[in-house]
Automatic annotation (TrEMBL):
UniProt record similarity statement: Belongs to the CPA3 antiporters (TC 2.A.63) subunit C family.
GO cellular component terms attached to this protein's record: membrane
Compartments where located: Membrane
Main localization, broad class: membrane
Protein name, UniProt field: Na(+)/H(+) antiporter subunit C1
Tagged with keyword tRNA-binding: no
Alphabetized Pfam families for the sequence: Oxidored_q2
InterPro entries in the record: CPA3_antiporter_subunitC, NUOK/Mnh_C1-like
Topology in membrane: Multi-pass membrane protein
Amino acid sequence: MEKLLTNYYETGAIILFGIGFMTLLLNNNLIKKIIGMNIMDTAVFLFFIAKGYIQGKEAPIISGNFKGVEGYINPIPTSLMLTGIVVAVSTTAFALALTVKIYEKYGTVELDKILNKGE
């Protein structure tokens, strides 16, 4: 229980991922599925950024005296998460554009109604 309270960013990320996953699975509305996917993306970003942080070290922006390599946090996990955010935004935009086209064709964004109309 103590580890759960000291790692509250990771715990929050796991809870958010579960909420997003259940939203993705349990809803038939395509917009709600996209929202669930975005919640899952955010949870993954939060988890990796929380794991990349090291207590007592600074961001690798040198101002003043150089503290040596051991005085700074590795910038690679943060830059990878920035790239992931760009990919997530692009994926969301593409999914929303597809949803608009599906709505124009079928007149609904409910997945079960779309599947029944295709028969």
